[in-house]
Each structure stands twice: as structure tokens, then as C-alpha cells.
Amino acid sequence: MGETFISVLIVSSIGAGLAALLVISEMFIANYGACRISINDERDLTVQGGTSLLSVLTAEKIFIPSACGGRGTCGLCKLKVLEGAGAILPTEEPYLDKREREQNVRLSCQVKVKNNLRINIPKELLSIREYVTRCVKIEDLTYDIKMFRLQLVKPATMEYTPGQYVQLLTPVYDRSPVEVYRAYSIASDPADKGIIELIIRLVPNGICTTYCFNHLKEGDEVKINGPYGEFRLSDTGAPIVFIAGGSGMAPIKCILHHMENTGSKREAVYYFGANVVKEMFYLDLMRRFESELQAFRFVSVVAKPAEGETWDGETGLVTQAVQRGVKNGAICEAYLCGSPGMIDASIKVLQDLGVTNDRIFYDKFA
Amino acid sequence: MKQGPEVQHLDMALRSSTLVAGGFMGYDPRSVTEVIDTDAGELFRLGVTDKELAARMKEITQKAADAQGTWVEIDPDHEAQVDETRGATACPWRHRGRYFKRVTTVRRKNSDETIRWSDLNTHMVDAHGFLEGKGSMFRIEPAPFVRMLF
Fold first, then answer.
1. Which stretch of DSSP H or E encloses residue B37?
2. Which residues of A touch B65 (CB under 8 A)?
3. I need a labelling partner for A95 at 20 to 30 A (CA). Which of A23, A110, A251, B46 fits?
4. Structural domain boundaries of chain A?
5. Which pLDDT band, with edges at 50, 70 and 90, does A14 fall under?
6. What is the pTM for the complete model shown?
7. Rounded distance, CA A174 to CA B16, Å?
């Protein structure tokens, strides 16, 4: 028994010694220490190394666009890293073309801060801010789409261009062990100061949408940052074709509010497609835009009304309706928002109608 | 059965909600290796390989994708529909590649029987033989899938 006790003591001591060695070695091996990040050769940050450049910048309240929450799947978080990033990682390669590689563009979510870095951040991103908001209304638009109305608290206003998007912070909850950001287009009326509305569709297994649909309540605090994005109406005055279905309506709605607010006389038609009638929403609002905007027409298209549904509007695919309806493609500009498949199909139809590529604008978010 | 550190790490990643809410393993207590091996055996019993299953899933997705969310007939007894949302996701095996958030649903005509899969499912079946754990939202149960797709 004495021998057994001594054996146990020896083995335990070895185990404890190894554990201590591990703890001590981690303090040195995995500890990158303080790292300096030089931004635009104008400003320096001193940060603790060991995490991604994206997360370090976020912690310093410098918000870089990301639609995938830093998982390396959206390619939006590109920055020029002039020094200190090391070789391009396999996870970055699909997102960087030859010109970008030559210019030292990197995915900031994949670059780990291990030593001093010298980076360039576009000026417009340095003006991105974080906003604390309160969810003041949640409205069902369809069986899987909701409108979330957020009251800006701090700061109390946001300057944005209709067409832009924000990133919504999903907090840790039972289905997500980490905070993630997801991008959503601003849908609100820009004249409604202090309010940001988002139109969100439930995605099966979606981290953010599951939170929004199942957990977020009126009165809850919500953090967002922004605004981001280049999708916006031009000032050319050319006739407009909008094509968007489902939650893709969000930026179009915002733009239409802006056109109403500014008394725009610009010719515009919005093709809104859905599979069945129950997927239609905001029809009354669109009718109002038709009566308030001098030259606006709303065309709702249902692919195939379900049994029991009544529908006297256009039927078929939304692209078929565009094909039937657009007669002046050569002078039009097109603004598309939706899934990659719908956008790709719409682009083909628009090109056949004579709309040139430089006059087709889209927000794919893919 | 002992698992090496890489497989342990993969197992943890599949159970976490880092990529999708709820992860990929559902309530399945088995290791990812057991899940893959058991499903491979079941597919063998049904006379189909994982590659053949993935190829058929991809074929149906491509056929239905052109219909922009409407139902298309894939054979006299079945219809398929593709639903897309914005965004893309990575594979939990953490290699190069991104997979659109696109879900294909197949239903037997005149019945409520449906199956569905995502683009990521198709990839995981093809490249990793992984059909997800029991109870996972996008679990591919071999028997109904083979029955509906072949």
C-alpha cells in the first residue's frame, strides 16, 4: 500500500509539473505581447496581439464591413496591410485577385496580429460608428419576414445614404457562443430621424435571424454599426428599374421614401416578385408611393398563386415580367437587390433588353 | 474509440454554433467518425455511394435553381424548389471554399413528404461523407433521401 501511495504521488507530481510547464510556456509562446498598428501613417494603436486584425480594430471601435461575422466567407473586410502580415493564407486566396495581391490587400478577419503592422483604412470607414439602439417595434410582414424598428439612443441620429446597410450585433445566446455581426440594408424613411428599420427574413439555422425571431423583444437594446455600402441611387435622372423580392425590398423602400421626400419626378418602376400571394407585403405602402410619386409604377408579380389564393396581378417569374414590361432598356438604370440567383437571372434579362453593365447596380450580399 | 486531436477539434467545431445556430450534430452523442462510418454503411446497404448521392443532390439543385424559387418537376412523382438567402458559409472542415445559403427542397407530389438540403450539405456529403448528426436541422437521413432521389 505504501508503494501504491508513493506511485500515485509520483505520477501526480509529474502531472502537476507538466501542467505548470504548459501554463508557463503559454505565457511566452502564445503571447505575442503588445503590437503597434500604424493606420494610414497618421495614427498608431497599441494592442495585445493574438487575435485577428478585424477583431482588434472592432475592439478599438474601428468598424470594417463584414457580412459573415469574421468567418472568412464574405470577403468584405479587405484592407491594405503594407507591412507585417506575413504570407497570404489559403483561406484568403479565393477572395483576392492578382491586382489586390500586388497592392497588399488582405482579409482582415484572417490576418492575425502577431507583430507590428502598417495598414491603410479608407477614410470613409474611419467615420463608421457604433450605435446603441432600442428595439421599439417588431412587425410580422409575412410568415418568415419581420420588420424591426430600432430607435437610435447613442448617438441619437445617423447620417446615411438610402441604399446603405448596417451591421447588427447578435449577442451570445443559447444557439451562438460568440457575438457575430450580420449585415442588413436600412429600410426606414430617412426623414424619420433617429429611427433605423430593418427587414429581416428568417434563415434556417441562421445565427442572427434565429436570435431576432426567437429572442429579441420590443424594448431590448440592440447594437449596430454603420452605415456601409456603395449601393445608392445615381443622380443621372435616367429612368429606373428596381427589381427585388422578399427582404431585398429593404434598400428599395428606403430609396423610394427618399424620392418621395425630395419630390422626385424621376421615372421609376419596381418589379416585386414572390412565389405565392402570402409572400407579398407592403402593398398598401407601394400604392401610396404610386399616388405620391409622379412617375412611379409598382408591378407585383406572383409566380403561381397557391390553391385558395386570389390574385389579379401579374404572374410568372419576376424576370418574365421585366421582359414584358421594360421597353426603354437602352436608357434605363437598374437597381437590383436579392439573392445571387435572382440577380444573375435579372442581369441576363436586362442585358437582353439593352441595359448596359455600367448601368446595372446590385446589392448581392453574397 | 479514441479520437486523435484533429478529429476531436473537428467534433467540437461541428457541435458548436460558430458557423450555424445549433451546429451540425444535433443531439447525436456519437463522434463524427462514428456518424460518418454508420451512414456510409447505411448508404452501402441502400446501394448508393456518398459521391452518387451528392451528385444527384447537385443535379437537382441546378435544375431547380433556374426557376427562381418556383417548383419544378424532377420526375413524374417529385418536384423541387430552391430558396436562396443572402450570404455564404464556410465548411466546418475549414478548407478553402464558400457555400451559398441556398436550400433545395424536394417533395413527393400529392403528399406532405419532403426532404431538403443546403449547398453546404451537398459539399459535406461529397467531400467528407458527412450527413450531419441525428437531430440536426439539416440531417440527411439516408433511407428517405435515397428513396426520393433515385
1. helix B32-46
2. 341
3. A251
4. 34-125, 129-228, 240-363
5. confident
6. 0.82
7. 11
Best of B84, B86, B124 to mutate (most A CBs within 10 Å, chain A): B86
What confidence tier does A152 reach under pLDDT thresholds 50, 70, 90?
A: very high
- Kindly report, residue by residue over A35-66, the tens digit of the pLDDT: 999 999 999 999 999 999 999 999 998 988 88
In the block, cell 428517405 appears at B144
* Grid-cell match 389564393, residue found: A309
pLDDT in tens, A263-272: 999 999 999 9
Taking CB atoms and an 8 Å limit, are B21 and A340 in contact across chains? Answer: no
CB proximity under 8 Å: B 28-87 to A = 65-71, 82, 84-87
Complex ipTM value: 0.81
Pick the CATH number of A34-125 from 3.40.50.300, 3.40.1010.10, 3.90.340.10, 3.10.20.30: 3.10.20.30
Instruction: Give me A363's grid cell.
Output: 446589392
B13–chain A Cβ distance below 8 A for any pair: no
Amino acid at A308: G
Mean pLDDT of chain B: 90
Asked whether the beta carbons of A324 and A299 are under 8 A apart, the reply is no
Contacts of B87 in chain A (CB under 8 A): 67-68, 73-74, 182, 203, 365-366
